[in-house]
Design a protein that fits this description.
This protein is α+β, with helices and mostly antiparallel strands. Helix content is 42%, strand content 11%. Strands 2-1-5-4-3 form a five-stranded antiparallel sheet. The two termini are 37 Å apart.
């Protein structure tokens, strides 16, 4: 993923994402074989030669000045996350920092697991490859019972694309799927190989054409905060806000916590769902949504 092919994939994907008309370019007299900007158009916008862009995409450029890199980033309309990624991709091996310590099999430290268990709303600790390292009962009720899975299957990306129930749990599955893959990419430092991540990507690309397509898009995304909509048979649809916090000295782990808006119908539904989960024996069928007045499933 830190090879010249990775740099080429990233740059060509960013070119393809830009509408030439939106970049202020005149209509082309020749039909375009592929969507987006041509190399010569990027070169013109960045003020460099076409040959330079071609060599850069092929990984045949040595040191790239900050000025040129900024000009190319501006031409490709890169956001801050994408700019950092491009800088990492073009950093020569001789100048790359030492890779951070990162085990292929991560664990959440006991104090973090205790912290997650004390949070009343859904919360979990994720590793940099989307591993679920710790989750509380509320989180397992909203999504799925991670503890019941073999350890190697406790991965949000794997579950999202391979488990049919994931498409029910998330109301906007396609949006969540796209941002999850983009976040998986963004969480990897392209300057350092990650065999465990490459195995996961290879497995999911073979098992899920949708994952392969999202991965090929080469989008980058960082989960910081936002809102997601969920569905559960017992209460129907509800919305939760999420906030993620980087955990220092953890090898890239994050704490992700979900909360409903105070006084909202979603807060009521979450409380009802967690109360139901606490009083239901494992393996018992959930209370049908029609038995909860006003809490049945809405439009999907």
């Amino acid at each position: 993923m830190s090879t010249p092919s990775g740099l080429r994939e990233f740059l060509t994907s960013r070119r393809a994402a830009i509408d030439p008309a939106s970049a202020g370019l005149p209509p082309s007299t020749a039909p375009r074989r592929t969507p987006g900007l041509r190399r010569e158009e990027v070169a013109a916008l960045a003020g460099v030669s076409v040959d330079y862009i071609a060599k850069l995409e092929q990984g045949r450029i040595g040191n790239v000045s900050d000025q040129v890199l900024d000009a190319i980033s501006d031409a490709l309309r890169l956001d801050e996350l994408e700019r950092q990624h491009l800088r990492a991709l073009v950093t020569p091996k001789s100048r790359r920092p030492a890779p951070p310590p990162r085990s292929s099999r991560m664990h959440a430290r006991p104090s973090l697991r205790t912290l997650v268990d004390t949070i009343p709303n859904p919360a979990m600790v994720q590793g940099p490859r989307m591993e679920i390292l710790a989750s509380n009962q509320a989180m397992r009720t909203v999504l799925t019972d991670w503890d019941a899975m073999p350890r190697h299957e406790r991965n949000i990306a794997r579950w999202l694309f391979l488990a049919p129930e994931a498409r029910t749990r998330y109301v906007r599955w396609e949006t969540v799927a796209a941002t999850t893959v983009a976040s998986l990419r963004a969480g990897h430092d392209p300057r350092h190989p990650d065999e465990a991540l490459e195995r996961l990507v290879g497995e999911l690309s073979v098992a899920s054409p949708e994952f392969a397509a999202y991965w090929a898009d080469y989008r980058l995304f960082k989960h910081t905060h936002g809102t997601k909509k969920f569905f559960h048979e017992a209460v129907g649809e509800f919305a939760l806000n999420y906030d993620t916090l980087d955990i220092p000295d953890s090898g890239g782990q994050i704490l992700c916590a979900y909360t409903p808006d105070p006084g909202s119908p979603s807060e009521e539904k979450l409380a009802l769902l967690l109360s139901w989960a606490a009083s239901t024996e494992p393996g018992a069928a959930p209370t049908p949504a029609r038995h909860v007045e006003g809490h049945g499933p809405g439009p999907r």
